[in-house]
Amino acid sequence: MHLPAIDFHSHLGGHNPCPFRDPFSLPPGYHPLYWMKDRAYFNSLAEEAGMALQFKVGLLLSRLGLDLVNNKADINKQLKTSRRIEKLVVLAFPPVVTDGKPDYANTPLYVSNRAVMALARDNAKIIPGISINPLADDAEPRLEELMAESKKLPNGGKIIFKLFPSVGLFHADGIDSEGNEMPYRQKLLAFYDRLAGCNIPVMVHTGLEEVVKDIEFQYFMEHGGDVAKLVPLIETGVTVILAHSGYDPSYQKAHGGKPNQYREVKAAMQKYPNVYADIAGAFSTDYNFIGTVAELMEDDHCRRKLIHASDYPVGLADPEKMLSSLANEDPDNIYVQKAIRVYQAIAAEPGLNQMTALDGCARMAALSLQAMGATENSIEEYFSNGARVLGY
Protein backbone atom coordinates (compact mmCIF):
# COMPACT_ATOMS: atom_id res chain seq x y z
CA MET A 1 0.00 0.00 0.00
CA HIS A 2 1.38 3.37 -1.05
CA LEU A 3 1.83 5.92 1.73
CA PRO A 4 2.08 9.53 0.52
CA ALA A 5 5.16 11.59 1.31
CA ILE A 6 3.89 14.44 3.48
CA ASP A 7 5.63 17.67 4.40
CA PHE A 8 4.20 18.10 7.88
CA HIS A 9 5.03 21.73 8.63
CA SER A 10 4.37 24.80 6.49
CA HIS A 11 2.87 28.22 7.00
CA LEU A 12 0.25 30.37 5.38
CA GLY A 13 1.01 34.01 6.02
CA GLY A 14 -0.35 37.43 5.22
CA HIS A 15 -1.68 40.69 6.50
CA ASN A 16 -5.44 41.23 6.48
CA PRO A 17 -6.28 44.04 8.92
CA CYS A 18 -9.70 45.59 9.33
CA PRO A 19 -10.57 47.86 6.39
CA PHE A 20 -10.17 51.60 7.05
CA ARG A 21 -9.05 51.03 10.65
CA ASP A 22 -5.82 50.90 12.57
CA PRO A 23 -5.21 47.15 13.03
CA PHE A 24 -3.98 47.84 16.57
CA SER A 25 -7.53 48.92 17.44
CA LEU A 26 -9.57 46.12 15.95
CA PRO A 27 -13.29 46.49 16.65
CA PRO A 28 -15.13 43.91 18.79
CA GLY A 29 -16.29 40.95 16.76
CA TYR A 30 -13.86 41.51 13.90
CA HIS A 31 -11.92 38.38 12.89
CA PRO A 32 -9.07 38.86 10.40
CA LEU A 33 -7.91 35.98 8.22
CA TYR A 34 -4.31 36.51 9.30
CA TRP A 35 -1.99 39.28 10.39
CA MET A 36 1.34 40.07 12.03
CA LYS A 37 1.56 42.62 14.81
CA ASP A 38 5.19 43.48 14.12
CA ARG A 39 4.90 44.79 10.58
CA ALA A 40 8.56 45.83 10.50
CA TYR A 41 9.49 42.17 11.07
CA PHE A 42 7.01 41.09 8.39
CA ASN A 43 8.54 43.64 6.01
CA SER A 44 12.03 42.24 6.70
CA LEU A 45 10.76 38.75 5.83
CA ALA A 46 9.28 40.12 2.60
CA GLU A 47 12.59 41.77 1.73
CA GLU A 48 14.46 38.50 2.30
CA ALA A 49 12.04 36.82 -0.12
CA GLY A 50 12.47 39.62 -2.69
CA MET A 51 8.85 40.69 -2.23
CA ALA A 52 9.22 44.03 -0.40
CA LEU A 53 7.36 46.04 -3.07
CA GLN A 54 4.50 43.53 -3.29
CA PHE A 55 4.21 43.59 0.49
CA LYS A 56 4.03 47.38 0.70
CA VAL A 57 1.48 47.70 -2.12
CA GLY A 58 -0.58 44.80 -0.81
CA LEU A 59 -0.53 46.22 2.70
CA LEU A 60 -1.83 49.54 1.42
CA LEU A 61 -4.61 47.87 -0.56
CA SER A 62 -5.52 45.68 2.40
CA ARG A 63 -6.77 48.87 4.03
CA LEU A 64 -9.54 48.71 1.42
CA GLY A 65 -10.39 45.16 2.44
CA LEU A 66 -8.46 43.44 -0.35
CA ASP A 67 -6.77 40.17 0.64
CA LEU A 68 -3.55 40.41 -1.33
CA VAL A 69 -0.67 39.95 1.11
CA ASN A 70 -0.44 36.17 1.40
CA ASN A 71 1.39 33.15 -0.03
CA LYS A 72 -1.62 31.02 -1.00
CA ALA A 73 -0.68 30.93 -4.69
CA ASP A 74 2.90 29.92 -3.83
CA ILE A 75 1.71 27.03 -1.67
CA ASN A 76 -0.51 25.67 -4.44
CA LYS A 77 2.25 26.06 -7.02
CA GLN A 78 4.80 24.26 -4.83
CA LEU A 79 2.47 21.29 -4.45
CA LYS A 80 1.52 21.20 -8.11
CA THR A 81 5.14 21.09 -9.28
CA SER A 82 6.62 18.90 -6.53
CA ARG A 83 8.06 15.57 -7.60
CA ARG A 84 8.63 14.25 -4.08
CA ILE A 85 6.07 15.78 -1.73
CA GLU A 86 2.50 14.62 -2.29
CA LYS A 87 0.73 16.39 0.56
CA LEU A 88 1.40 19.41 2.74
CA VAL A 89 0.27 20.37 6.24
CA VAL A 90 -0.48 24.11 6.44
CA LEU A 91 -0.67 25.50 9.96
CA ALA A 92 -2.84 28.08 11.65
CA PHE A 93 -1.64 30.34 14.49
CA PRO A 94 -4.05 30.99 17.38
CA PRO A 95 -4.77 34.37 18.96
CA VAL A 96 -3.93 35.42 22.47
CA VAL A 97 -7.04 35.16 24.66
CA THR A 98 -8.04 37.77 27.23
CA ASP A 99 -11.01 37.04 29.50
CA GLY A 100 -11.99 34.15 27.26
CA LYS A 101 -12.12 36.23 24.06
CA PRO A 102 -9.66 36.58 21.15
CA ASP A 103 -7.28 39.49 21.64
CA TYR A 104 -5.92 40.05 18.14
CA ALA A 105 -4.35 43.41 18.93
CA ASN A 106 -1.98 41.73 21.40
CA THR A 107 -1.34 38.63 19.29
CA PRO A 108 2.17 38.52 17.75
CA LEU A 109 1.17 36.42 14.72
CA TYR A 110 -2.26 35.14 13.75
CA VAL A 111 -3.41 32.80 10.98
CA SER A 112 -7.06 31.83 11.17
CA ASN A 113 -8.55 28.37 10.93
CA ARG A 114 -10.86 29.81 8.27
CA ALA A 115 -7.86 30.54 6.07
CA VAL A 116 -6.23 27.09 6.30
CA MET A 117 -9.56 25.26 6.00
CA ALA A 118 -10.42 27.26 2.88
CA LEU A 119 -7.06 26.34 1.39
CA ALA A 120 -7.73 22.65 2.13
CA ARG A 121 -11.21 22.82 0.60
CA ASP A 122 -9.69 24.04 -2.64
CA ASN A 123 -6.75 21.63 -2.80
CA ALA A 124 -6.99 17.94 -1.88
CA LYS A 125 -3.22 17.84 -1.33
CA ILE A 126 -3.44 20.19 1.64
CA ILE A 127 -3.97 19.00 5.21
CA PRO A 128 -5.05 21.80 7.55
CA GLY A 129 -3.30 22.25 10.87
CA ILE A 130 -6.00 23.94 12.90
CA SER A 131 -5.17 25.80 16.10
CA ILE A 132 -7.37 26.96 18.96
CA ASN A 133 -6.27 28.69 22.14
CA PRO A 134 -7.58 26.31 24.85
CA LEU A 135 -8.34 29.29 27.10
CA ALA A 136 -11.03 30.64 24.76
CA ASP A 137 -14.61 30.43 26.05
CA ASP A 138 -15.65 28.58 22.90
CA ALA A 139 -12.56 26.34 22.58
CA GLU A 140 -14.35 22.98 22.77
CA PRO A 141 -17.39 23.92 20.64
CA ARG A 142 -15.07 25.41 18.03
CA LEU A 143 -13.01 22.22 17.99
CA GLU A 144 -16.19 20.20 17.41
CA GLU A 145 -17.18 22.49 14.53
CA LEU A 146 -13.80 22.17 12.84
CA MET A 147 -13.75 18.39 13.28
CA ALA A 148 -17.18 18.17 11.63
CA GLU A 149 -16.03 20.49 8.84
CA SER A 150 -12.90 18.39 8.25
CA LYS A 151 -15.00 15.35 7.33
CA LYS A 152 -16.10 17.20 4.17
CA LEU A 153 -12.60 18.01 2.98
CA PRO A 154 -11.44 16.51 -0.34
CA ASN A 155 -8.31 15.12 1.37
CA GLY A 156 -10.39 12.39 3.01
CA GLY A 157 -10.93 14.19 6.29
CA LYS A 158 -7.27 14.43 7.29
CA ILE A 159 -6.48 17.16 9.81
CA ILE A 160 -4.03 17.90 12.63
CA PHE A 161 -4.08 20.26 15.60
CA LYS A 162 -1.32 22.76 16.45
CA LEU A 163 -0.93 23.71 20.11
CA PHE A 164 1.02 26.93 20.54
CA PRO A 165 1.57 27.86 24.22
CA SER A 166 4.40 30.26 23.35
CA VAL A 167 2.25 32.35 20.99
CA GLY A 168 -0.98 31.87 22.97
CA LEU A 169 0.90 32.94 26.13
CA PHE A 170 -0.25 30.15 28.45
CA HIS A 171 1.57 27.53 30.49
CA ALA A 172 1.11 24.19 28.71
CA ASP A 173 0.76 22.31 32.01
CA GLY A 174 -1.26 25.02 33.74
CA ILE A 175 1.56 25.57 36.26
CA ASP A 176 3.48 28.85 36.37
CA SER A 177 7.25 29.22 36.68
CA GLU A 178 7.01 29.28 40.49
CA GLY A 179 4.99 26.07 40.70
CA ASN A 180 1.59 27.69 41.24
CA GLU A 181 -1.51 26.22 39.63
CA MET A 182 -3.05 28.66 37.17
CA PRO A 183 -6.82 29.36 37.32
CA TYR A 184 -7.21 27.91 33.82
CA ARG A 185 -5.49 24.56 34.52
CA GLN A 186 -8.63 22.41 34.75
CA LYS A 187 -10.04 23.95 31.57
CA LEU A 188 -6.73 23.24 29.83
CA LEU A 189 -6.62 19.60 30.94
CA ALA A 190 -10.24 19.08 29.87
CA PHE A 191 -9.37 20.43 26.44
CA TYR A 192 -6.44 18.00 26.18
CA ASP A 193 -8.79 15.14 26.99
CA ARG A 194 -11.11 16.34 24.23
CA LEU A 195 -8.22 16.50 21.78
CA ALA A 196 -7.31 12.92 22.64
CA GLY A 197 -10.91 11.94 21.96
CA CYS A 198 -10.71 13.46 18.48
CA ASN A 199 -7.91 11.01 17.63
CA ILE A 200 -5.89 13.48 15.57
CA PRO A 201 -2.16 14.28 15.88
CA VAL A 202 -1.29 17.29 18.03
CA MET A 203 1.78 19.29 17.08
CA VAL A 204 3.45 21.55 19.64
CA HIS A 205 6.12 24.14 18.99
CA THR A 206 9.24 23.32 21.00
CA GLY A 207 12.33 25.43 21.53
CA LEU A 208 12.65 29.19 21.42
CA GLU A 209 9.78 31.13 19.82
CA GLU A 210 11.04 34.13 17.88
CA VAL A 211 7.59 35.33 16.82
CA VAL A 212 7.04 36.53 20.40
CA LYS A 213 8.93 39.82 20.51
CA ASP A 214 7.47 41.65 23.53
CA ILE A 215 9.91 41.61 26.42
CA GLU A 216 7.15 41.13 29.00
CA PHE A 217 6.48 37.75 27.42
CA GLN A 218 10.11 36.61 27.48
CA TYR A 219 9.23 33.62 29.65
CA PHE A 220 6.91 32.25 26.95
CA MET A 221 9.43 33.04 24.24
CA GLU A 222 12.04 30.91 26.02
CA HIS A 223 9.92 28.30 27.82
CA GLY A 224 6.52 28.12 26.13
CA GLY A 225 7.66 24.99 24.30
CA ASP A 226 9.40 23.22 27.18
CA VAL A 227 8.86 19.47 26.82
CA ALA A 228 8.40 18.97 30.58
CA LYS A 229 5.30 21.15 30.44
CA LEU A 230 3.75 18.86 27.81
CA VAL A 231 3.54 15.78 30.03
CA PRO A 232 -0.20 16.25 30.83
CA LEU A 233 -0.92 16.37 27.08
CA ILE A 234 1.34 13.40 26.30
CA GLU A 235 -0.20 11.30 29.05
CA THR A 236 -3.67 11.57 27.50
CA GLY A 237 -2.34 9.14 24.89
CA VAL A 238 -2.84 11.51 21.96
CA THR A 239 -0.14 11.43 19.26
CA VAL A 240 2.16 14.38 19.98
CA ILE A 241 4.59 15.81 17.41
CA LEU A 242 7.34 17.97 18.89
CA ALA A 243 7.93 20.59 16.20
CA HIS A 244 11.51 21.62 15.41
CA SER A 245 12.85 18.77 17.57
CA GLY A 246 13.11 21.19 20.49
CA TYR A 247 15.83 23.21 18.89
CA ASP A 248 16.21 26.81 17.79
CA PRO A 249 19.29 28.03 15.94
CA SER A 250 19.21 31.55 17.36
CA TYR A 251 19.09 30.17 20.89
CA GLN A 252 22.01 27.91 20.06
CA LYS A 253 24.13 30.80 18.85
CA ALA A 254 23.22 33.05 21.79
CA HIS A 255 23.97 30.36 24.35
CA GLY A 256 27.31 29.11 23.14
CA GLY A 257 26.15 26.03 21.30
CA LYS A 258 23.88 24.62 24.02
CA PRO A 259 20.90 22.87 22.41
CA ASN A 260 17.54 24.15 23.62
CA GLN A 261 15.23 21.26 24.58
CA TYR A 262 16.83 18.87 22.08
CA ARG A 263 17.84 16.35 24.73
CA GLU A 264 14.38 16.53 26.31
CA VAL A 265 12.79 15.83 22.94
CA LYS A 266 15.03 12.82 22.34
CA ALA A 267 14.26 11.45 25.81
CA ALA A 268 10.50 11.91 25.29
CA MET A 269 10.67 10.11 21.92
CA GLN A 270 12.42 7.21 23.61
CA LYS A 271 10.10 7.11 26.63
CA TYR A 272 6.65 7.65 25.14
CA PRO A 273 5.30 5.53 22.23
CA ASN A 274 2.99 8.40 21.21
CA VAL A 275 5.69 11.09 20.93
CA TYR A 276 7.27 12.01 17.57
CA ALA A 277 9.31 14.99 16.37
CA ASP A 278 9.50 16.93 13.13
CA ILE A 279 12.63 18.51 11.64
CA ALA A 280 11.05 21.79 10.48
CA GLY A 281 13.69 24.46 10.05
CA ALA A 282 16.67 22.10 10.09
CA PHE A 283 17.76 23.21 6.61
CA SER A 284 16.69 26.82 6.94
CA THR A 285 19.51 28.23 9.00
CA ASP A 286 23.20 28.99 8.93
CA TYR A 287 23.71 27.64 12.45
CA ASN A 288 24.21 24.21 13.91
CA PHE A 289 20.59 22.97 14.10
CA ILE A 290 21.20 20.15 11.65
CA GLY A 291 23.83 18.60 13.94
CA THR A 292 21.25 17.63 16.54
CA VAL A 293 18.76 16.45 13.91
CA ALA A 294 21.54 14.31 12.44
CA GLU A 295 21.94 12.67 15.85
CA LEU A 296 18.23 11.78 15.82
CA MET A 297 18.65 10.40 12.31
CA GLU A 298 21.51 8.20 13.55
CA ASP A 299 19.41 6.68 16.34
CA ASP A 300 17.32 3.80 14.94
CA HIS A 301 14.46 4.30 17.39
CA CYS A 302 14.26 8.08 16.94
CA ARG A 303 14.61 7.95 13.17
CA ARG A 304 11.50 5.79 12.97
CA LYS A 305 9.64 8.59 14.80
CA LEU A 306 10.99 11.55 12.82
CA ILE A 307 8.43 13.40 10.69
CA HIS A 308 9.52 15.14 7.50
CA ALA A 309 8.87 18.89 7.62
CA SER A 310 10.25 21.94 5.83
CA ASP A 311 8.90 25.02 7.66
CA TYR A 312 8.04 26.45 4.21
CA PRO A 313 8.09 29.33 3.20
CA VAL A 314 11.20 29.79 5.37
CA GLY A 315 14.11 29.56 2.93
CA LEU A 316 16.77 26.87 2.70
CA ALA A 317 20.37 27.45 3.75
CA ASP A 318 23.18 27.52 1.19
CA PRO A 319 25.29 24.40 1.90
CA GLU A 320 28.55 26.08 0.84
CA LYS A 321 27.91 29.02 3.15
CA MET A 322 26.95 26.60 5.89
CA LEU A 323 30.24 24.72 5.53
CA SER A 324 32.14 27.99 5.52
CA SER A 325 30.36 29.04 8.71
CA LEU A 326 30.98 25.67 10.36
CA ALA A 327 34.70 26.00 9.63
CA ASN A 328 34.75 28.71 12.31
CA GLU A 329 33.01 26.55 14.92
CA ASP A 330 34.59 24.29 17.54
CA PRO A 331 35.84 21.23 15.60
CA ASP A 332 35.53 19.08 18.73
CA ASN A 333 31.81 19.82 19.07
CA ILE A 334 30.01 16.61 18.10
CA TYR A 335 27.09 18.56 16.58
CA VAL A 336 29.49 20.57 14.43
CA GLN A 337 31.07 17.34 13.22
CA LYS A 338 27.69 15.86 12.29
CA ALA A 339 26.60 19.10 10.60
CA ILE A 340 29.77 19.14 8.48
CA ARG A 341 29.18 15.53 7.49
CA VAL A 342 25.62 16.30 6.43
CA TYR A 343 26.38 19.51 4.56
CA GLN A 344 29.30 17.97 2.69
CA ALA A 345 26.84 15.40 1.31
CA ILE A 346 24.32 18.12 0.47
CA ALA A 347 26.92 20.39 -1.18
CA ALA A 348 28.02 17.53 -3.45
CA GLU A 349 24.50 17.08 -4.86
CA PRO A 350 24.20 18.56 -8.38
CA GLY A 351 21.13 20.59 -9.30
CA LEU A 352 19.86 21.05 -5.77
CA ASN A 353 19.46 24.80 -6.19
CA GLN A 354 17.24 24.20 -9.22
CA MET A 355 14.62 22.35 -7.18
CA THR A 356 11.48 23.85 -5.72
CA ALA A 357 11.55 24.63 -2.00
CA LEU A 358 9.56 21.54 -0.97
CA ASP A 359 11.57 19.19 -3.17
CA GLY A 360 14.86 20.84 -2.18
CA CYS A 361 14.15 20.31 1.50
CA ALA A 362 13.06 16.71 0.89
CA ARG A 363 16.27 16.00 -1.03
CA MET A 364 18.35 17.59 1.72
CA ALA A 365 16.62 15.33 4.25
CA ALA A 366 17.30 12.23 2.15
CA LEU A 367 20.98 13.15 1.72
CA SER A 368 21.27 13.82 5.45
CA LEU A 369 19.81 10.43 6.30
CA GLN A 370 22.18 8.80 3.82
CA ALA A 371 25.14 10.63 5.36
CA MET A 372 24.12 9.36 8.81
CA GLY A 373 24.04 5.75 7.62
CA ALA A 374 20.35 5.22 6.85
CA THR A 375 19.46 2.57 4.25
CA GLU A 376 17.21 3.30 1.27
CA ASN A 377 14.38 1.45 3.03
CA SER A 378 14.89 3.59 6.14
CA ILE A 379 14.77 6.75 4.04
CA GLU A 380 11.49 5.69 2.43
CA GLU A 381 10.14 4.84 5.88
CA TYR A 382 11.09 8.33 7.06
CA PHE A 383 9.05 9.96 4.30
CA SER A 384 6.10 7.70 5.16
CA ASN A 385 6.09 8.45 8.90
CA GLY A 386 3.74 11.42 8.54
CA ALA A 387 1.22 9.33 6.62
CA ARG A 388 1.30 6.63 9.29
CA VAL A 389 0.72 9.20 12.04
CA LEU A 390 -2.30 10.49 10.10
CA GLY A 391 -3.75 6.99 9.73
CA TYR A 392 -3.26 6.44 6.00
Structural overview:
By secondary structure, the protein is an alpha/beta fold. The chain has helices at 39-48, 52-62, 72-81, 113-122, 139-150, 165-168, 185-198, 218-223, 231-234, 249-254, 262-271, 289-298, 300-303, 319-326, 334-347, 357-371, 376-389; strands spanning 6-11, 34-36, 87-91, 97-98, 101-102, 109-111, 126-130, 160-163, 202-205, 240-243, 275-278, 306-307. Strand 4 (97-98) and strand 5 form a beta hairpin. Helix 1 (39-48) runs antiparallel to helix 2 (52-62), helix 5 (139-150) runs parallel beside helix 7 (185-198) and helix 15 crosses helix 16 (357-371). Strands 1-3-7-8-9-10-11-12 form an eight-stranded parallel sheet. It starts with 5 loop residues before the first strand and ends with a helix. Helices cover 41% and strands 11% of the residues. It has a single domain, classed as Metal-dependent hydrolases (TIM Barrel, Alpha-Beta Barrel). The chain has 17 helices and twelve strands. The radius of gyration is 20 Å and the shape is globular.
**How many extended strands?**
12
The radius of gyration is: 20 Å
The H-and-E topology, N to C, reads as EEHHHEEEEHEHEHHEHHEHHEHHEHHHH
C-alpha end-to-end distance: 9 Å
Taking all residues together, what is the mean pLDDT?
84
Unreliably modeled segments: 18-25
Largest sheet: 8 strands, parallel
Number of domains: 1
Multimer state: single chain
State the shape. globular
Q: Can you identify the CATH class?
A: Alpha Beta
CATH homologous superfamily caption: Metal-dependent hydrolases
Count of helical stretches: 17
Based on secondary structure, the structural category is: alpha/beta
Strand order of the largest sheet: 1-3-7-8-9-10-11-12
Q: What is the helical fraction, as a range of percent?
A: 40-55%
Q: What is the name of the CATH topology?
A: TIM Barrel
CATH architectural label: Alpha-Beta Barrel
Strand content: 5-15%
